[in-house]
Design goal:
The protein has seven helices and no strands. With 184 residues, it is mostly helical. Keywords: Coiled coil, DNA-binding, Sigma factor, Transcription, Transcription regulation.
Length: 184
């Protein structure tokens, strides 16, 4: 099969389904640190399916991507439970530095790199602070700021009152500003 056609179809499906997939994974995961891995595994599986079965195999790509994500979430949590029984001190809260890479050209953009490093450090500090919050607060922040869902959408998705969602956002935002400054 033509690799270029597979990549084009994959990119088309990815662009069409990514937001919905992220929202689904966020709403179903118990811990926000596993979200990037599950999303990545979902789209790797999609690519393999397109490569093995062909680009015309999927009749409803949106539903298929969610089905893959659901399967990856199930696999993750069933594996996690198995590992917990084997290793009692299994810790899912280890900080993952691999998601914080800067993509800039050092020679051409020295000033921008300096600012990017400062922003990266600040964002890393803010994310570390957010990880001390309960999972519901982390999910709300992820859905509100990353997935750009509205407060009513988040409330419906997480089965919480809108006032609770607003409270999580405003209280935690206030704490972040107080701890990291107004620009944080």
């Amino acid at each position: 099969m033509n690799t270029q056609r597979i990549e084009e179809k994959f990119n088309e499906i990815y662009d069409k389904t990514y937001h919905q997939c992220v929202v689904y994974v966020i709403s179903k995961c118990n811990h926000t640190s596993v979200i990037p891995d599950i999303i990545q595994e979902t789209y790797i599986a999609l690519y393999r399916i397109l490569k093995d079965k062909g680009i015309d195999y999927l009749k409803n790509p949106e539903a298929y991507v969610i089905r893959i994500a659901k399967s990856k979430i199930y696999q993750h949590y069933s594996l996690k439970e198995k590992v917990k029984r084997i290793i009692p001190l299994f810790d899912i809260n280890k900080e993952d530095e691999e998601y914080n890479h800067a993509d800039t050209d050092i020679e051409q953009y020295e000033n921008e790199i300096e600012m990017a490093i400062e922003n990266k450090e600040l964002l890393s500090d803010i994310w570390s602070f957010l990880q001390t919050k309960p999972q519901k607060v982390q999910k709300v922040f992820y859905l509100f700021y990353y997935a750009e869902l509205s407060i009513p959408e988040i409330a419906k998705l997480l089965h919480l009152n809108q006032s609770t969602i607003k409270n999580y956002i405003y209280r935690t935002t206030h704490e972040i500003r107080k701890k990291f400054g107004k620009d944080g």
